[in-house]
Each structure stands twice: as C-alpha cells, then as structure tokens.
Amino acid sequence: MLTTDMKRGSTELLILALLEDRQRHGYEIGKLIETRSGGQITFSIPALYPTLSRMEDRGWIDGRWVEKPNTRRRRFYALTPAGRKVLAGQRRDWRAFVAAVSLVAGLNDA
Amino acid sequence: MPDWIRHVRDRLSLPALDERREDELIQDIAQQLDDIYRDALGRGTSEDEAAAEAGGHIRDWHALARDLTDANAGRRKPHIDQWQQHCEAAFVGRQAHQYRIGGWFDQVRLDSLYGLRQLLTHRGFTCVAVLTLALGIGMNTAMFSVVRSLLTGASRFPDADRLVMVHATTADGRSAVVTDADYEELSRRRGLFSLVAMFDTIERTLGAVDDPLTVRVVSCSADFPALVGVRPLLGRRPGPTEYLPGADPVVLITERLWRRTFASDPGVVGRSITIDAVAHAIVGVLPESDSLDRLVYAPFDVLAPMGTVRAAAAGPPPTRRMLAILAAGATLDRARAELARVVSADPPIDLTAKSPKTFGLRSLDEALVPFSRRIMSAALLATVALLLVMACLNLASMLMARTSAREREFAIRAALGAGRGRILRQLMTESLMLAAAGGLLGVLVGAGVLRLVRIVGDAPLYVQEAARIDAALFGYAFLLCLITALVFGLTPAALTAKALGGATLRQGTGALTTPRARGRLRSALVIAELAIGVPLLVAMSLILRHLDSLRSADRGFQVDRLVTMRVDLPAFRYDSDAKRTVFVRDAVDRLRAMPAIASVGASSGFPIGVGGYKAAPARISGSSTASDAQPESLAYKIVTPGYFDALGVALLLGRHVSDQDTAVSEGVAVVNRRLADRYWPGGDPIGRTIVMDPDGKNQRQVTVVGVVADFGREWEGSLPDPQLYVPHQQQPASRMVVVARTVGDPANVAAAMRQAVRHLDAEVPVSDVLTATEITRRWLRDDEIMAWFLSAMAALALSLSVIGLYGLMSQLVIQRKREIGVRLALGATPGDVGRMMLLRSSRLAATGLVIGAFVSVPVGLAMSNQLYGVAGTEPRSFALVAVLLLAAGVLAGYLPARRAARIDPTATLRCE
Fold first, then answer.
1. Taking a C-beta distance cutoff of 8 angstroms, is the pair B250, B298 a contact?
2. pTM flag (> 0.90)
C-alpha cells in the first residue's frame, strides 16, 4: 500500500503529467490518477484539491471556467509554460530518484 | 438534487482569501462533489445514498480550509499579494531572457508598485508616518536654511574666496588708523591685490522729512560696490566721476530706508534726500543683505561715495576699513608674507604715523562669521536633529508593529522561494518611499515654518533670507530622507531578516519572532524616544524660568510709568559742547514743566541693556585695590540733574550732580555702590579723585561727590558693573536718552514728549519713545526668540513622545487581548485592567524620564552660564518636566486603557 507521505510527494508530478496533453477538470484528474494507477493511488478532494489550488497560485497551471453546450460549468486546468518547465524538471528529478532508490534498495531483483 | 454550492459554502470558510478566489474554490469543490454524486447515481445507488456518499467525502472542513488558505498565499486579502504574485509569475514566464537585462529595474519597479499599494492600503499608518517625518525633516530643513544664512560669510559676494579684510596695526600691536595714503599705497600693489576698496560707517541726520531720522551712512571708495557685488533693485550704482571731489552728491538708499521713509515709492530714483542739511540725489535702491550688513558691522541705510557726505565738524573721524581682492595666483599666506615684507622694506608707508605701521590680512569669511555664530548654528542643528531622531525612533517602532503584523506574509513569501534579500529589499523600498514622501512634505513644512516666522515676528534678516528653496536645500532634504529611511527602516528589517534566517512557517500563528522579544525592543525604542525628549523639555523649562526671572528681576529702579526717548543731536548743527549743553538742558527743563510728567532726567544710555556706556582708562586715588601700574578701565555714563530721581534710584551718600556742576566748575562724578565697594572697600569714597584718560589728550580729573544704589545691568546674569556718572554739563554727549516718570498712563504722554523736543528744534531726530515694559521686551528679544524656539521644539518632542507611547500601548492592548479577556473572565474588573494598562504606560514614561534626566544634567550645566536667576540643574525645572512627561504617559495610555477595559471576555475567548 502506498503511504500518505509517498502520495503527497508525488501529487504535483502526477497532476502536471496528466495536464500535459490537454486541460482537465479537478474530478477528472482524481479519477484518472485512480484508474491509471490501477486503483493503487486514490485522492480525496481534501488531499488533492489544495495541491491543485497551490499549483494554480504559483502559476504552474491555469484554471478557467468552461461552459460547453449540454454540460455544466466546470473549472478546467491547463499547463502553463512555467508548469511545463516544472514538469520537465520534476520528471528528471524523479527519474534520478527512482534509479537511485532502485540501486540502493535492490528493487529490480525483487 | 442537493445544492452542493450551498453545502460547501456552509462548511468551508476562507476569510483570509479574497472573495473571488473563495468563490472559485467553493464552486469548484461543489462541482466535484456533484460529480461524485452523479457517479454514485450512475452506479445505481439511491439518491439519498449518493448524496450521503458525496456529502461525506470531505470530513475535516477545517483542515481543508487551512490547507487551501496556505495554498493560496497569493490570493489573500489585501489584494496586493495576489497582484504581486501575478506580476512575478507573468514576468518569469513571459520574458525569461529579459529577466537578466531589465531585471533590476523591473524588480525595483515591482517593489515600488507593491510598496505603494501597501502604503495606500494602510492609509492611517502612512499618514501618521509621513506627517511625523515631514515634521522632523521640515524642522531640519528650516533650520538648515537658517544656519546656512547664519554661516554665510563672504560667499554672497563675487570673488568670495579671494576677498580679504586689510587691517593696519602699529608696531606695538594696536590697531591703527587707515588713511588715504594707505589706500593709495595698497592700490598700487597690483601684484598682490587686483582691487582695493575702502569704506567707513557713520551716523548722520536725515532731514527735510516728516520725522528727522538718524541714519547709518556707509561711505565708500569707487571700487567698493563692484567688489561686494552691489546690484541695485532700482536705479544704478554711482558712476566713477561721482566719486571725484566736488561732484554733485549722490547716494544709494537701502530697501529698509526706502520702505520706511518713502513707502517703497517706485519713483524714488531722482528724488533727493537731505543728509546733515545737504541735498543728495538718490540714484538707486539697494536690496537688503545680511552679509553686507555684517560687513559694515550693522544694518545701514545709505551708501554714498566717500567724501560727498560732509565730514563731521566735531568728534573723532569714523574708522576706515579696507577690503581687497587678492590678485590672481596670490594665496592668503603668500599675500600676508609679501605684505609684511613690502611694508618692512618700505617703512614709511604712512608718512603721518608716528610709529611704523604694518598691515595684516584676514579672510572675509573669518571676519563675517564669528565663533559665536558657529556655536549657535551647531546648537540649533543639534536641537532639531534630536527631533528628527525622535521621529525616526517613532517610525521604527511603528514599522516594527506593522512588520509583525505582516510576518505571515513574509514567511509565506520566504517559503515560496523569496530570498531574504528580496524581502529586505521590499521592506527598505517601503521605508524609502515613506521617507521620500515625508521629505517632500518636509521641505514644504520647512518653507511654511520660515514663512510663518517671517509673518509672525520681526525676524532677524538672516531668518528672512533663509526662506529660499533651492537645490542645496533639496539636496539636504534628500540626504535626510536617506538617513532617516536607513535608521527607521533597518531595525524592523534586520529583525525580520533574523527571523527569516531560521524561517519555519509554523502553522496557525505564523509568527517568526517571539512577541515578547519584539515587545521589549519596541518598548526600548519608545523609552529612548521619551529620554531624548527630556533634555529638550528641560531646556525649555530652564529658559522659561530664565525669562521669568529676567522679567521680574529687580533692576534697581522703578519701572512703572517710565518713558524713555532717544534724542540724537545732529553733529552739523550741534558742533560745540556749549550748544549741546544748552539744548539738553532746555529739553529737560521743557519736559519737566509738562504737567503729565512727575520727574525727568537724561543720560547717555538706556537704564537697562547694552549700550550707552562709554569706557575710559582711569587712575583712582587712594584705592587699595586699584592697580598702580595700569590704569583701570571704567565704564561711565553722562547724566543730567534729576536723572536718578526720575529713575527712583536711591542716593546712599553725598549728593547728586546738579545744575551748579558746569564746564567751569570743579569736575565731579557720582559712583555706584559697586564701584565704591570695589576701589575703596570700607573707606569713604566722597572726596576721592579719579583721573580719567590719564595718558591721553582728554585727561581730566573728577571728584566723587555721591554714591547711588546699584541699578541696571550690563549683560544677562551679571551684577551691575562699577559705574561712574559724569554731569552732562561737564562732558556733553550728542546722544541722550531722556527718562521721564509720568503722572498718568505713559502711553498718553509719549506724543507730547516728542512734540516738546520738536518745538525746541524740529531737525533733531527723536526715536525710541518706549515704556519700560517695551524696553525690557526689546532687551529680552533674543532670549524670547530662543524661548519660543525651544518651546516649539519641546512641544513637538512631547507630541512625538505621546504618539509613540500611544502606538505602543494600542498594539499592546491588541496583542494581549486574549490575556485581558481571561483576566476579565476570571474576575478582574474593567477598572483593574484599565489601571494595569495605565500603570504600564506611566512606567514606560517614568523609565524614559529617569534616563533622560541623566542626559539633561550636562545639558542644564552647559546652559547654566547663559541663564539668569536659575541654576542649570534646578530641581523645579526637572520637576516640571517630570510632571509633563508623566502626564503625557497617562494621556497616551488613557485611550488604549479604556479600550482594554471594554474588552468583552466572552467574545475574545470565543474567537480563540
């Protein structure tokens, strides 16, 4: 099972990665993380939403109300150029981190 | 379907965020709950179950609110933070490469814009801060202007750095008379001086006007106006031919005379004035100039080519003075050496002198700015500087309070990556902006103060000339701004920096430093401020007591119903002792015959104040205390019979001078008690003889015939000097001051007295018709100006102290609100709480007072030799200050104390 600490550290990367292709709304992000992780990672609103909000506050993502015909008004989040840079940086850092942890902890043998 | 927005809004409260953001977050979360609800419905659950699932999704609303508030640091109220973050984000994202190029400028611009918004948001704080600074800087710039005027030496003249005063000395070191021959001799030395000018000053009578007037006339050689850069307001300078002997007499008059006698008539040029009965054509009007007045030693009325104003028939010739401009390349030292060599190599430079004469040089600056002026300037600047220091301490303390209120903002900015330097720069930018606003307003305040002084009192000319706003003044104000911003901005900034050094963003309180340490520092600042105010208050209290004792001092004569009147006998009409004797005797007789006058007499000077004394070397017979080798220098006055009676001065021994003491009878004198006690202690002074001017051509012997009580004082704080009173008939003077004791109100008699003298001779100038009160006021003018100045400074200092203390106490009440709430809840009465706060405020004032008192002792001691009738460390003055300061402490503490007493304990405790 993933601990809360492990989740918290990776939330930003997950959100950024999900927003890389297109803009999504908050509920969609939570759902996508859950389905793509095979149910391993789940976020409640109190766990996910403040991070989303903080990222918006820092200007990594940009939230916008969108009203499409036949759907309700939703807030969609898109990656900003600054966010794109942060994502690249975080990916690099995580890759290095995972490789290092693997080497030390012998994860590949398991 | 449940109303999710309402659901969220009822549970999620984000008071710290701005409303738009709060709204956005609520709607977005509501939307997500709605998604969960719909998902559940989609899975086939009932509406109630779906609603319960969505509604139960968020359990700890409190934690969510906290997390959201933290996450949205940039969207807090006030809106400024959001704005700033947006700017920075946009800026970083958009133009990364420009960041380095225009970065510094943009950062400064951002800081300033942000600072401006901060200052505009907290208007109350900004107003108090700017006003405090404006007062401090204003008083300082005003004083800077005055001191600049005071210290202006030669710089108002052209070629200021090469202007020198030339003085002549005899071989034995005494100053010698400057003659025409000297002037011509020096004028020929082109290698030394490029220009030489000569002038003298003498009093003359301005006639043929409504009121004949004694005027000061400066006679000068042809180069003088050019040398001192005289530029007439109206008309022109005299031409070269008008300096030649036999030319038609022309004069320039000064602005002062123009205003007084010609009511500033623009058509005055071309009219003529009568000086000593000779008509002189007015060719121009000179502007008033403090420097020029000082160059010729006193304010003057007329500038005339030398030789055209008729020389006095009697009396010593006026003292001539020489001015010169050093030739190009000649330094003062070289010129001194060369001048000494030239003269010694060519001794008979002045053929008429008995002993060889030498010449010395003095730079004009040195001559025009005496040491006393420098001391006075330093004292004035120091006083206003204290005020500025107080203003700075006040601001530092206020800024500290503001900074602690903003600590959470700084902590979050630090957590978000703002470096320590970044935050410090922001703080310093805000300080600088405050200082700049205060400085600008300060220049206006300063100009206003000077204007006010000019309007209210008849300010000395150097104060009038000070009301000039120019680049130097702005430069000074700018410098003050920088210094003050550094002083008052650095303390809070340094404190924040220290706190940020170990920055941890503690949840909930978000405090960076302990409130206790901060409170102590703030208290220390306020105590320092109070302490600095104490010497100012003490100085004020001392000078007020000094004035009081001067006003009520026993002058040795009766002041009620006393009128004085100065009479100047024009030398051209009263050119002999006999004529002067007759006029003065007739005038006094005529006045004595007036029914409104009880008694009358005259003397060569006013009964109090400086002036009117003559001094002569004298040998005193039969004295055990007088030196045998050197003649004593004795001050003497010339008096008419009836003088002592009119003043009400008691005769202690012998007799007064009388009408029988004439030019042909034996020379007599009356002495005061102090003279008798000094030279004949224990002996009988009557019948003793004094030889006046024993080695000079005016040698004469007088016999002491009477002793009168001491009266009048030569200078502040002194005992009356030894005085000799000589009868007018035996040594007639051309300037006499009549003193009359009136029967009724002296103000009603003044005009009649003037008229009586006019009847005798309408060409005799009469002036200074004053009551004893008016003389005292005139005599005390400088002390009164000083007292006004110190009182104003002390009042400002006290107000600053009260403001500082009030600010501190108000913050204290806010900080301790919870504690006070607990106290009240536990049974303390509002009275107890109020008393506690008042006690705290008074204790701060008392601490400041004690520290300040220590500082004040040396101040008092330094002042004490300028004070009359009050010791520099007089307890009563200190007690007055103590009362004032403690009252200020109570006053400053009263409102906060009342606020504390009115705290509602339940409300306070509920908040927490």
1. no
2. no
